[in-house]
Records
---
Amino acid sequence: MLKDDNRRVMLEKFMKENDFQESALLEILHKAQELYGYLSKDLLMELSGSLNLPPSHVFGVATFYSFFRFKAPGEHLVTACLGTACYVKGVEEILLAIEREFDFKRGESTADGKLSLFVTRCIGACAMAPNIIVDGEVIGKATKEGVLEHIRLLLGGVTTETR
Amino acid sequence: MSRLKLDDLQKIAEHELDFQRAYKYRINVCCSSGCVHLGALKVLKAFEDAVKEFGAEKECKVAKTGCVGTCSVGPVVIVDKVGAVRPRLYQNVTPEKARTIVQDHMILGLPAEEMLYKNEAFFKKQHRLVLRNVGKIDPSRIQDYIAMGGYSAIVKCLATMTPQGVIYEVINSGLRGRGGAGFPTGRKWSMVARTHNSPKYVVANLDEGDPGVFANRTLAEADPHAILEGMLIAAYAIGAEKGYIYARAEYPLAIETLQKAIAQARSMSLIGGNILETPFKFDLELRFGAGAFVAGEETAILASVEGRRAMPRPRPPYPAHSGLWGKPTLIQNVETLANIPIIVQNGGAWFSKVGTPKCTGTKCFSLTGKINNPGLIEVPMGTTLREVVFEIGGGVPDGRTFKAVLVGGPSGGCLPENLLDLPIDYDSLTKVGAIMGSGGIVVIDDQSCMVDTAKFFTDFCVDESCGKCTPCRAGLARVKEIFEGITEGNGKLEDMATLEKSSVYIRDASLCGLGQTAPNPVITTLRYFRDEYVQHIVDKTCRAGKCFRKEKEV
C-alpha cells in the first residue's frame, strides 16, 4: 500500500474522525470501498492494524455483508436488481442474455476487464421494474435488447467522461 | 440559525405560511428515487426556466417534493393553487411538457388536461397518516415541515406532558410496530422506560431489506423530519439521550436527505443538548447497513450498529433490557416512528378510531409486480387485499389473469384469489400463512410459476441466512436442493411431504425471524397451489414455461 497515496490519507482522516472506534468499522469499510473501488487483502490488513482489531474480525465483518467487493471491478459496472418485483418482471432473462453475449458470469468481470456484472437485492425502484444499473445510471422498465445495445455502445469505445 | 425556544416554533410556522401564501401556485416536482431515475431533476430545472421565461417568479414557487406514490407514471408534478380544493397531479412530465404546463396552467389558468393523472381510484381508498406530508413539503427544508405543524408534537411533550403521559397516549393509540411482527409500541416503550440502567438508546430501523419493498425509503426521502420527531418523542418518553438511524446503503438519496435533515434540526437546536431551551438532550447518528437482509432483525441490527457481523442472538434478554452495548434500547421501524407525532398531537383515542379495533392506524405498502398501478400506497388496517389489488392497483395488465399475491416480502406467503377478501391486519395474515412484513405486496400473474417463485424466495433466504443456527442454515439449503430437483425434472411425489416437514422444522426451530418465516412461501404455495407441484413432478411440465429449461433455450 502506498503510504503517500492521497486516498490513504483520506481514509486515515476518516478513521480519526470516528476515533478509531470498533463500532465505526462498517462506516470505515464503506469509506474504503468508496475510495478504492474494492477491499483488497492488503487494505483490510492495514485497517485491522489501524483499528487495533484482529484481522479475523475485520475480514469476518467485511465478508459477511454482500455490499463489499474483494476483487477489482471492471471498467464498466452493470448491476441487475434481483428484487422480487424485478424477478417477476423478468430480470433473469436480461441477466442470462448479458452473460451469454459477453461470455462471463454474474459476480465476475470479462476477460479484458472492461465489464463487470453484479446483482443486488432490490434498489427500491420496484414500480419501474425490471431495473438495470449501468455505471450508476438506473435503466427502468429495462428490455433485453435495450440493455444489450446500451452495453455494446459503452464497450464500443465510448467512455464515461464523453457520454 | 439561533437557538429556538418553545414558542419560537409557532412563529416560524406562521412566517413560513405567510411566505408560501404569497405565491399563487406551488409547483412540486417529485424528486424521490423513482422519479429521479426518470429525469425529474431535468424537469425541475425546466420548470424553473419556464417560470423565469414567462416572468412569473412572483406567482409560482417551484420546489422539490417527496413521492406521492404513483411511481409508474413518473416524473410526476403536483401543482397546488392557493385556495384550490385539491392539487392537480401531472404525469409523465418531460422538460418540454414543463413549459406547456407553465404556459397553460399558470399563465392562461387552464390546466393541461391531457397530461393530468386521471386515475381517481388510486387515491380514493387510501388514508394518509404516515405519508401526510408527501407531495406537500420540500423534504430538504425544515421550515416546510414546521409549517405543516411539524415539531409541535415534541414541543407539546416538553411543555405539557410527562414521559409517562406520552407513553400512556401511545398505549391508548393501539399502535403496533410496523416492522413486521406487530408488537404493541406503547408496551415496548414502557418496558424500556421501566428498566433501571443507563444510558438508554433509540434505534430507528431503516434497513428495508425485503426485495420489492420501498415504503420506508420513500418515507425517509419524502418526510425525514417526521422520523426525527418520532425519535425525539420516543427518547423523551423512555429517557434516552442517544439514537441511531440504521439505513440501507442501497438508499443513497434517503441517506442524503436524512443527513441534511439532521444537520438542520441540529442547527435549530432540535437535536443536541438543551433542546428548545429545556434540560432534554438527544443526539443522533446515522449508521449504514451493507446489504444483509438479516440486519433488519432486532438483535442483528444491534450487532451491526456496534460494527460487528449482523447475527441475531437468542432472546431474552430483550433489547428493551439489554440492547446496544448491553444497555436498554428501543428499536422501532421508521414508519412506526412517523406515526408518533400525530398520536401526540391528536391523542391516542383519535388514532385508535382508524383501522380495526385490534390493529389501529394505517399501513404503507409497496404495490408492485404484474399490476396496472404500481406504487406506494397507505391504507387503513382492515382494507381487503381485493381492494388493494383491483381497486387501488387497477388489476393485472395486458389481459393476463391474476394468479397470486405475495404479501410480506421473501418470507411472506403466496395467497390465491379466493383469499383476496381477507382484511389486511397482523392476525388475519398470520392465520393464512403470510406475514405483514415491512409491507410488500407483489402481484403475480399466470406467466409466473409458483414452484419457481417459491424456489426464488428460498434461494434468497439461503443467500441471506447468517449461518448461526442449523435449522435455517442447513435446513433451507436442503429445501433449495429439493426445489432444484423438482424444477430440473428429478422430482418425486414424496418430495412434497419432505418439503412440508422440513418447513415446519425450520419454522419452529430457527433462532430468529428470518428462519422462522423463510418457509412461508414454501408452505403457502404447497397449500394453495399444490396442483402445480404435482404437475412438475408427475408430468414434468411447467404451465408458465419457467422450469425445465436448458440454459441455451433461454
---
Amino acid sequence: MSNFAELSIAKAINAGIRKSMQDNSKVLVFGEDVAQLGGVFRVTEGLLDEFGSKRVFNSPIAESGIIGTAIGLAMRGFRPIAEIQFDGFIYPAFDQIVSQLAKLTNRSEGYFDMPVVVRVPYGGGIGAVEHHSESPEAYFAHTAGLRVVSPSNANDAYWMIQQAIESRDPVLFFEPKRRYWQKGQVNLDHAPMSLHTAATVRQGSDVTIATYGPMVVTALQAAENAAAEGINIEVIDIRSMSPIDFGHIVESVKRTGRLIVTHEASTFVSISSEIAAKIAELCFYHLEAPVIRVGGFDVPYPAAKLEELFLPDADRLMEAVDRVLAY
Amino acid sequence: MNANSSEIPMVQLLTVDGDFIEPKEHAVYGDIVRQLREADFLKFYRDMARIRRFDEEATALQRQGQMGLWVSAIGQEAAQIGSGYGVGPNDHIFPSYREHGVAITHGVDLMSIIKTFRGVNHGGWNPKENRFHLYAIVLGTQVLHATGYAMGINFEGLVGTGDPEKDLAVITYFGDGATAEGDVSEAFLFAATNNTPQVFFCQNNQWAISSPVGTQTKVPLYKRGEGFGVPGIRVDGNDVLACYAVTKKNMDDARNGKGPSLIEALTYRIGAHTTSDDPSKYRDPAEVAEWAAKDPLIRFERFLRKQGIGQDFFDEVKIAGDALAADLREKTFAMPEPPMELMFDHVYSEPHPLIEEQRAWLQGYEESLDGHDPISNGEETPRYGGTH
C-alpha cells in the first residue's frame, strides 16, 4: 500500500524539493525572495528553516547572474534549483541558458554534467500586470541541450520536480501558476512514470486533444462538454515539451484520426507547430482532418482585462472540435 | 583623467630597461619576487617566448588556410604568464578566449587550442584535470561561472582553513571590452555579497576590436568593482614580475578568506583582434610603436641579462621555439577531421530520441553515398583553401 497525501501543486513541488534536499546534500535552492518569504508563490516556504542559508538563499535581482552562478555551482558538483520569479523575467538570463547552460556538456565533450533545474512559474489567468503571464517554453524547447517539462497536477508536480533534480542535464521546469492551488492526490511512494513520458488523462475515440501544464484542466472541461453532445474526446497530457513523447500521440491519433493541440503560448512557431508537423509526417494515412492548433493569439500578452479573450478556453476548444469533425 | 591615464598609480617592479624597482607603497610585492629563484625567472621567460612563438606560428598557419581563425595574444605574454604562475596549483581558472599563455602555465596542450580555432572541436581538454576551463566566446559569461564556482568552494568550507592543501580560490580572465557586459557587473555583485575566494583579472589591452577602452568606460577599470564591494588594483601588464606578485598576493588573500578582488593589468594588443581584423583602419601606428617599445619579452630579457644570464640561454630558447613551431606545423597538417559522432555526442547525458533518430539518419545517408560526395562528384575537396 502506498501512502497518499492531498496537496496543492505548489505544496507538492515544495514537498518534492524537500525530499530531494533530504536525499542529496548537493541540492541547493536559490533565486529572488526564495528564502524567508518562500518565493512569491510560497513554493519554497519552510526550506530555509530546514536546510539553512548555505542551501537556501536569496539572490540579487539579476537573472543572468542567477543562472550564471548556477552553472558554476554545477561545475563544482552541486545540483542547483534556480527560481526565476516570473516567466517574463527569464529573458535577462537567456544567453546563460541557451548559450551556456544548454551547451556546456556538449562543448566540454561530457566532462561536465549540467544538473541545473530552472523553475519558472508561467502562464496567465491570474489578472497580473505585464510580463507576469507569459508562456516562453518554445524558446527553450528549440534549444538543443535543454529539457523542458511542465506538470499539470499535484502528483506529477511532486514526482517531476524530483526527476528534474535527478537529471544530469538542465531542465526548464515550467510551473502552471494559475493551477498552483489546485489540489490532488499525491502518491508519496511511487512515481507514475519517467519525466519525458506522455500520459493519457482521459480516454476517447473521436478526437485527440494534446496539451500540457495549465491547459490540461481546460481540455478535460472541453471533453466533458463534448461528452454531453455525444463526442468522445481523448486528452493527452504530454508533460514534456522537450523531448516530446511522439509515440504516445501517434498511438492515439491512429485511433481517433483527429488531433487538436492546445497551449496558452502564441501558436506561431510553437510546441503545437512542432507536434502538428510531426504528426502530419507520422500519421499521414490515419488523419481524417488537418491537425488544428489552438493557442494564444500572436500578439503580446494583453492587459489583464483582455486575457480571457486571449487565452484558449473550453469553448474555443469545442469550436476546434467542431472544425476537425467537419472533415 | 581618462581611463588609461598615466597618472593612475600602478604596481610596477621592472622598468622598461629591465631594472628591478622596490615598490614603495607595496613592499609585499617586492618580498614575493625575492622568494623567486633563478629557475623561476628562466621559466617565466621560456614560457613567454614559447607562447609568442606559438602565436606567430599559429597566425602563419591561419594565413595558409589551416585554421578558420586565430586570436593573437602578442603583447600580453607578461600579463598571462605572470598571473598564470601566481595562481596556486589547486586553484581554478576561467579564461576568456585569448589566454593561451595562462593555458600553458597549467599544462593545457597547445594543440587543443589549435583544434579550437581550426574548427575541430570546442577545446577538448579536460577542464577538471587542468583546472583551466574551456574558452568562453560570449564575453563575460565565464566570469559568472567562476563566481558560482567560488560560491561552491565557500559552501564546502574550503576557504580560510589555514591548510594550504585544502584552501582554494578561483581566477577569471576577461578583457576591457567584456567589462561592459552586464554579466561582469553581476559577477562583481554576487562575488562581493558572497565574499567569494576569487580574483577578477582584467587584461586591459586597450582595444575591443576597433573600439578603444574609452568606449567601454569613463573610469579606470581597476575601479569598476569598487561600487560593488570588490577592491581593485592596477598593475603594469607588461611586467611579468609585477603580474606574478600581485596575482599571487590576491589569490593568497582570496584563499585565506579575504574575499574577491579585481586586478587590472594594463597592457596592449600588439596584433589584430583576430586574423579577420584590420587594425590599420582604426589604430595610429605611432601608438603601436610606442607599446612595441614596452615589449614584455624585451623588458624581461634585459632584466635577465642584468642578472648575469648569458647568451647561451637565449640561444637555447630560440632553438626550442623553432622546434615548437615545426612540431606545431606538422601536427596541424596531420590533424584528422573530427568524427561525425562529435556533433551528436554529449548533447544530453543519456540517449535522446530526436538526436538518436537524426544521428542514425545521417549515418545511413552517408553510407548510402558510398564515399561519393554528391557536390564534388567524387573529387576530393580540400576543406581549408587548397592543397598544403
---
Amino acid sequence: MTVLLQTIDLHKSFGDTRACDGVNFTVNRGEFLSLVGSNGAGKTSLVNLISAHLQPDSGKILFEGQDITRATVSERIKAGIARSFQIVNLFDAMSVFDNVALSIFSRQSKTHHMAALANHDRPVHDETFEVLGQFGLRDKSDVFAGGLAQGERKLLDVAIAYALRPKLLFLDEPTSGVSTHEKAQIMDTVSSIVRAGTVTAVIIEHDMDVVFRYSDRIVMMHEGSFLADGTPEEIKANKNVANILLGAPLST
Amino acid sequence: MKATPSVSVRSRIPLLIAAAMALGVLALVPLVAGLYQIQLLTYGLIAAIAALGFNILLGYTGLLSFGHSAFFGIGAYTVAFLLRDLGIHSMELYILIGVPIAALASALFGYICVRHTRIFFGILTLALSQVLYSLALKLFWVTGGTDGLRVARPTLLATLLNFTGPGAFQRFLTAYYYYVLIIFAICVVMMWVILHSPFGKALQAIRDNETRAAFLGIRIRQFRWLAFLISGTFTGLAGILWAPLNGLATPDVLYWTFSGEIVFTALLGGFRNFTGPIVGGIVYTYLKTYAVATTEYWQALLGAVLVLLVIVLPTGIVGALSQIARRFGVKRVP
C-alpha cells in the first residue's frame, strides 16, 4: 500500500482551543477511512486544513509526495483533492444537472468558455447523466437543487465532489440529518461508487454502526490529536475508544 | 447503459420563435408609430442594453452595483470627445473606439470593486462613479461642466447614411431606430450565450454558493472581475448609442441617481429572468417619460411605483408573468 496523503506535525489553534495539536495523519491509496471522535475533536478542522479551507499554524501537508501546505484551493483540486460539506452546500437556484455539470466543466478547465452553450457539450452532458445515474438522481436532473429532499441533497453534495474525479475524496458527515433507512442507502451508494471508481475516501461520521460496517480503517480524534488508529476490529477492542464513546474518562 | 435524454435543443425552438417574433414586431413599429414613439422606443432599447449589462452582475453573479452610471457616462462622453477633439462623425468609429475604452474602465473599476462583496462592493462602485461625476463637473474646460457637450447627428454605416438637409431629423430617427435595434439584437444574443455558457453557469454558482464554487476549483474573484468587465462594457455601449440620440452628453448620466435608475430598471423587469432587464428598460423609459409629462413631482411618482413594485411584484414584471405562465403549465420562462 502506498501513501497518498501525509500530514506532518500539523497545528491549528483557535484562541486557546487546539483544533489540531501536532497531527500526523496518513491516508493510503485506495482505502476507505473513517475519521471519528466527539464534537470538537478536530475532525472537520483537519479536513479544512487539508482542503485549504483553513491555513495551518505550522506543519506540513504532503500529497503524492508533493508539499501542498501553501497550495490554493484550486491547486489542491487540480492535484486531486475534493470534499463535500457537513452542512449541505449546493447551488440551490440551479438545476441538479447544472450542479454536477459544473464540476465536470471545472475539471476540464472549461469554465472560462463564454462562447459555447453549456448544454450543447455532448461529452459533459453524457458524463453528467452517468454520474447522476450512479447517485440515483437521473430523474431529478431538471429539478432545482433547492427543491430536493434532504437525502437527495446529501447525495448530490457527494456527487458534485465526486464529479471532479478526485484521487482523494473527503466526505464530512454524508449521512447527518437523514433517517436511519436513508443513511444505509446513502452509504451503500457512496461506498460502492467510491470502491468501483478506485477513489480514496475519508469520511467523518458519528454513527459507529456505519463506521464499523463500511471502513477499512478508523482513526479516532480527541481534543486535537489522534487517540486510536486501526481496523474496525482493533478499534472495537480499544478500551479508550469505548470510554470516549460512552463519555467515560480516559484510562492512562 | 440506458440512452441519455437528448441534448435539449428541441426545448429551445419555441424560444427562438418567440425571439424572432419579438424582433419582427419591433421592426414593424416605425411603419405604424409616429416619430415621437420611435424615438422613445429607441431610448427604451438603449436602456435595455444598459440593464442587460447591469444584470449579469446583479442577477447572475449576485453583486449589486450602484455605480453603473460611470460606464454609461464614459460611453456618452467618449462620443462627445471623439466628435469635438478628433472631428469623428462616424457611428461605427464611435463604437469601435468607445467600446474598448468602456471595457478598459470596467476592467480598472472592477479590479478595485470585486475585492469586496455585498454592501462594500456597492459602496465602492458608488464612490468610483461619483469620482467621475465630480471630475466631469470640475474639469469644465474639458467636459463643459453642467452644460455638457453637444453631440451632432453621426453618419451611419461608414458614410452610406448621412443626415443633412430637409427632413434630416426625421430620417435620422427612423434609421437610428433600426441601427439600435440591430445592435440590441446582437447584444441580446451575445448576453444569452454568455449566460448559458459554462462561464455563465460558473457565475450563477458563485451567486448561489461562493464557498462551494471555490471548492469546484472556480477562482471566484477572477470570475467576478470578468463579469464586471462584461457588465460595464455593455452598459458603456448603451451610453455610446445614447449620446447621438440625446444630442448632448451631460453629467447627469454620471450622477448616482442615474445608477439608481439602472437598478430600478432591472427590478422593474425582474432581475432573476434573462428578459427582465430588457422589459424593464423599455417599460421604465415609458414610465419615466409619462411621469415627467404628467407631474412636476415625477420623482415622487416613480418612488411610489418603486415601493409598490418591491411590495407587490418583488420578482418584477417578467417574474410575475412567469409565475402566471407556470400556473398554465409553461415550464420555464426565460
